[in-house]
UniProtKB/TrEMBL annotation:
Top-level taxonomy: Eukaryota, Metazoa, Ecdysozoa, Arthropoda, Hexapoda
A Pfam family matched in the record: p450
Protein name: Cytochrome P450
Keyword Metal-binding included in the entry's annotation: yes
The protein's required cofactors: heme
GO molecular function: metal ion binding; monooxygenase activity
Keyword Endoplasmic reticulum listed: no
Record-stated family: Belongs to the cytochrome P450 family.
Domain of life: Eukaryota
Residue positions binding heme: 416
Amino acid sequence: MGFTEGYTDIIKLWFGPKLLVGIYNPNDIELVLGSNVHLTKSQEYTFFEPWFGNGLLISKGETWQAHRKMIAPTFHLNVLKRFMKQFNVRGRGLVTKMKKEIGNEFDCHDYMSECTVETLVETVMGVKECFQGNAYYNYAEEVMEMCGIIHSRHSKLWLRSDLLFKLFPEWKKHNKLLASIHRFTNKVFYKKKEAVVTKKPSTVTTSVEEENAKEIDAGEKYSFGHSSGIKDDIDDNEIGAKKRSPFLESLIERSLNDDGITEQEVINQVNTIMFEGHDTTAAGSSFFLCAMAVLPEIQARCHEEIDAIFGDSDRDVTFEDTLQMKYTERCIMEALRMFPPVPLIARQLEQELKLILGNYTVPAGCTVGIATIKLHRRPDIYKNPDEFNPDNFLPENSASRHYYGFIPFSAGPRSCVGRKYAMLKLKVILAHILRKYRIAGGKPMDQWELQADIILKRGDGFKIRLVPRS
Ligand code: HEM
């Protein structure tokens, strides 16, 4: 079935003895995601426990609340703008690396994920020159394999129980991958810890211009198509700029001062952020590039916008430039609408829930699934939902849309803490690519084979060609 066919606002499924309810109506979705009660992730997320421990994505109750309060301010725009220099270094590096592919059809996802992992390590983790060779790429590949195993535990009843799982070859593979992934993240953690303990200067470089840029009221200018005026904990401007440090530095300082988080819990958060922060962004940027490849007129408008901002110069992209990239931002959001990297969000209901639509009550303990990929293709929210149309995000079109009708980063108290980081980084990296290349090649969009695993991918590969721009 396609994404726009066979719509109902609610579906009910039995998975063995388990009741799953899928909801697609933004009013009902708001009841779950906007609630301060239904904050517990569904049982399916527990397959991540050996990997993330009690990391933010899967933790619950007071632990989640306390850690969220510590982590959200480390993703405030006034911290993120200090990463601009490093985003530019990685953007330029990517353009140079991709040069060898000119004329070939190649899978851009390989490049985007390697670049994303390296950028995360250098910015959010604040660690440089930690690895050599293909370490970043290998980490990204291992994460993908691990997600494949976790996804098969979701869909195959016999792999769900830990006892039975141990009887299958996937268990050995799982443990091998886990050990290697943890070796990578431990190295990042201990390198940063050493720097914090010995008070080495931060590796997060700040250009003079960014340093001088005035404090940003993050909620107003930078709401990414969401209804303006709605702020969340990432936008909190009450914490003075001086108190804010980047994620890992901040958490290590807290653990050293016995301030609400242990060393193991910080390592759990590193594992969580390294996963959640790279695979999603790599998929989002790859879908964007594939869309540009098959929509030359839309790409031409992005080029026009980028050329108007940068002209012939080869200067760095500044924070202010990213605010001018309005059309490109709308294209990124349209890619996230049609191809949301997290295609399904699930919660376990803490209390019974009376839905707004119809006369339904969903019992407590039941799993509620929210398929963003279906929600984003509702014809009553988006006029031609299968058409890539950046105008869906013109202010006048976004203003009248239900806030919960566009939720690539989820929404409410458990929304994505990294969404501003992701958008800023995507704009800088994609601006570097668009300044140097025209994207071509690949199959028309309606022939893409979407693979809705944990992170949405193209089963047929993210194939594009690059044409140098003179
Ligand atoms: C295009 C990029 C991204 C997309 C589409 C995305 C999407 C999402 C979604 C849908 C959720 C909710 C998941 C759920 O409830 O099951 C989420 C949560 C989260 N994301 Fe992202 N994300 C992106 C980038 C990032 C980045 C760059 C980071 C960090 C550097 C990050 C860190 C997190 C964390 C820690 C959570 C858990 C928040 C909580 O439960 O309190 N994400 N993200």
